[in-house]
Amino acid sequence: MKNSAVKTLAFRPEERNIFFHILTGCNLACRHCYINREQHGSEMVSREKMVEWLKLFYEPAKESNVIFLGGEPTMHPDLAFAVKKARELGYSSVTVDTNGYLFHNLLERISPDDAVLSFSLDGPDAEINDQIRGAGVFATCTANLKKAAALGFTTSLIYTVSRMNLEQLHRMPGLLAELGVNRFFIQVIGLRGKSAEDPENLQLTPEEWLRTVPPVAAQAAALGIPTIYPKVFLDKNEKFECAGRAAENFFIFPNGRVYRCPLCEDHPIHSLEIKDDELKKRAGLHEECFFELEIPEGCVMNRLLQAGNIPYGPDGAPLHRISCCLLKQGVGLEP
Q1: How far apart are CA 245 and CA 34, in angstroms?
Q2: Is 319 helix (H, G, I), strand (E, B) or coil?
Q3: What digits encode the pLDDT tens for the residues 107-138?
């Protein structure tokens, strides 16, 4: 039975999550894309490097999970090979995050046992979604999602909430049920990549987020669709915890940069890098130097890189403490 209670998903030290950007190219030009080719490179990871890097990050003693990302990862001709290789190496779960175009006949080259397919959609119809992601995207993404579900693939859907689509979020649970989606991820837009340069403020106020997102998550869960979303704001007496200290998450890019915190990805402050197929810790000032700091605002990286997210009272104290961006809440999950 699914649990209707909201649950904070604590970091799991026995788990290792690998977010593997195998390329940065994409067929779309989404308004809120976070990829920064100046920092991340523009090449594809070769088949040989994919194998070596998958081996490098696999930890047999831990539940190792890999998420293949881009750009659009299905544009890589060797994605199906990489998915199967990850399974062969022993990864506990393999996920492909896609915009829905599923290039290189992906559905014919992998099986439902090989990977979960996670589709990105930012509106309940073409009018909303396509102004964010591009003309024709809604029709293509939903058609391929239906096809994947019919073939037996486990599917999830990611909706990035911003000022462009907040008011349409409540329409998503019905669409998800119609499409046969197994899990719903609601994501908060961050000041990264294109969003950081957008002349409009696409971010939500704390009040907007709290008023809108938890009720829609409960609505989706009531339809039998487990829903996960960032906690964003800590409760009054809740302890702040940084994933960089309490969990193992690695964000890998084609140029060999490896970050522990996704908020840092617009900046050359990665703590690790891959050189000669070895993972090496960088010297000097980098993201991990900040993880140990404790501040009233909660997340120090948010305070440094997205300071406009934090409102202050007349006494100078923050009105909200920001949780680690990787801390999630879930509703409708298995007990």
Answers
A1: 24
A2: coil
A3: 999 999 999 999 999 999 999 999 999 999 99
Task: Report DSSP letters for 208-247, one per residue.
Answer: HHHHHHHHHHHHHHHTT--EEEE--B--TTPPP--HHHHS
Read off the tokens for 297.
Answer: 């605002």
Question: With b meaning 16 or more CB within 10 Å and e meaning fewer, what string describes 21-58?
Answer: bbbbbbebebbbbbbbeebbbeebbeeebbbebbebbb
**Ramachandran angles phi, psi of 146, nearest 5°:** -60, -40
C-alpha span between 138 and 142 (Å, rounded): 6
Question: What are 303's two structure tokens?
Answer: 């305070």
- The pair of structure tokens assigned to 236 is 């009054």
pLDDT single digits (tens) 17-73: 999 999 999 999 999 888 889 999 899 999 999 999 999 999 999 999 999 999 999
Q: Which architecture, in CATH terms, is 7-238+322-331?
A: Alpha-Beta Barrel (3.20)
Question: Would you say 83 and 115 are in contact if contact means Cβ atoms under 8 Å apart?
Answer: yes
Distances (CA, A) of 95 to 43, 196, 289, 318: 21, 27, 30, 37
d(CA 282, CA 308): 29
pTM: 0.95
**Beta partners for residue 98, in sequence order:** 119
Q: How far apart are CA 67 and CA 60, in angstroms?
A: 17
H/E run at residue 39: helix 37-40
